[in-house]
Amino acid sequence: MAGARGIPGPPARPVVGHLHLLKKPLHRSLAALAARHGGGAGGLLLLRFGARPVLLVSSPAAACECFTAHDVALAGRPGLASRRLLPDDCPAIATASYGPLWRRLRRLDATAAARDAGARDMVGKLWRAGPGSVAVKATAYEFVVNVITAMVAGKRMQQEEVLRLKAMTEAAHAATGAANRHDFIPVLRLLDLGRTARKLAALAKERHQFGQSLCSSEAETPRTVIGDLLREQERSPEPLDDVVIRTVCLSLLQGGTDTSSSTIETAEIISTVGTSRLLQESDLANMPYLRCIVTETLWLHPVAPNLPPHEASRGFTVAGGHAIGRGTVVLVDRDPRVWDEPEKFTPERFLEAKVDDDEGTRWRWMMPFGMGRRRCPGEGLALRTVGVALGVMVQCFEWERGGREEVDLSEGSAGITMPMAMPLMAM
Asked: How far apart are CA 61 and CA 40, in angstroms?
């Protein structure tokens, strides 16, 4: 039976459970609930979203235990109604059920050449624009779109295609947040209040058309994700059908563009690199402070603060004797007590830290990309893309705030990802 025994939680209401307690941004609301009600169970808090039990994990020790000792049990994803409507007939890599198809989809990588070429194009565009205010996220978004499109299909997108993809991505992320009430209260789905189901159906149709045009235009390109998937389709005893290929390409585009560009937008530009040539991806290994800036930005401003939810495929028991039932949804929230002055931008804190020396340093990677076998497969791509983009922006230009007021770092509320409430403008 789903649920958890002996884990504290606030009083729930009939039908809605604890959904009435959740405000935007969601991760701040969950953190407040954990601080108020979850102190007696080792960083665990039991909530109910409608009738579904939801376990909130908010301590490094509990997270490490859940996604190491019980990693297989938590490798599943909950079958939420909103997510079933979006990915055609095939789940995306991040939301696919744990099994053979997910293992095959995850074996994708990218090339450095696309990122270096994209960086050169971005610098050229900024240079031609001359002095004046720049919308940092829009610039970063176009760079990331071109990098990932080159990786997926071997081509660049036209401006209207970039805008269309951006609109679809933002709509999809807004509709599939971790606490979408339509996912947990069946009567809302039946009544379709707010026309949520119709909007998702229309969005799914547009995604289908966009993905099909992308796949059809570059069906013979050899050194791309599409080319790799088509070869896999020909030689595999269990071939990937066209729906799977289309969904994988859309997942890479929509999953990588919004998150990477949001991270670039909130990074503070306080490090400089050499000016003898344009920075390349191969230089990143020799730039520890640049890596610290990216890491600190991801800690302070994780673009997906609660990550896609997990679901227990079988029951298990965590430290303290707490039994977690099959079907329990598991969410992870960061613990600010891991670091001194956790809300202060201090990249130097990572200069002497080793990746796995203690719970705290392992926990810092928990939030941006997850942990265990469902850790985000795009982690390497995201870190390299952000590093190249931030490096060349610092190397080639001197940046100032777009006005006299301090930069507003308050968070927006777009669903899965967490953009800035006010777009960053710089000069």
From this structure: 14
User: What number of CA atoms fall less than 13 Å from residue 105's CA on the CB side?
Assistant: 28
pLDDT at 58: 84
| Dist CA 58 CA 31 (whole Å) | 8
Pair 140, 115: CB distance under 8 Å: no
Integer Cα distance of 275 and 220 in angstroms: 39
- For residue 268, what are its two tokens? 């503070």
CA separation for the pair 407, 110 (Å, rounded): 34
Q: Are 46 and 164 in contact (CB under 8 A)?
A: no
pLDDT digit string (tens) for 193-251?
Answer: 667 777 778 887 887 787 777 766 554 555 666 666 666 666 665 655 666 666 666 66
Torsion of CA 295, 331, 421, 21, to 10 degrees: -150
Which two tokens mark 422? 């006010």
Tokens of 111: 């090339």
Interatomic CA distance for residues 26 and 338, integer angstroms: 20
Known binding residue 249? Answer is no
d(CA 18, CA 12): 5
Give the span between the Cα atoms of 220 and 331, in whole angstroms.
41
Distances (CA, A) of 5 to 16, 144, 283, 290, 322: 20, 45, 51, 45, 6
Q: What is the DSSP string of 327-367?
A: T-EEEE---GGGSSSTTS--GGGGTS--TTSSHHHHHHHHH
pTM: 0.71
The separation between CA 307 and the C-alpha centre of its own chain, rounded to angstroms, equals: 6
Least confident interval from 116-130, 150-164, 268-282, 377-391: 268-282
Q: How far is CA 85 from the centre of its chain?
A: 19
Give the CATH H-level superfamily of domain 73-318+352-426.
Answer: Cytochrome P450 (1.10.630.10)
Phi–psi pair at 52, nearest 5 degrees: -85, 125
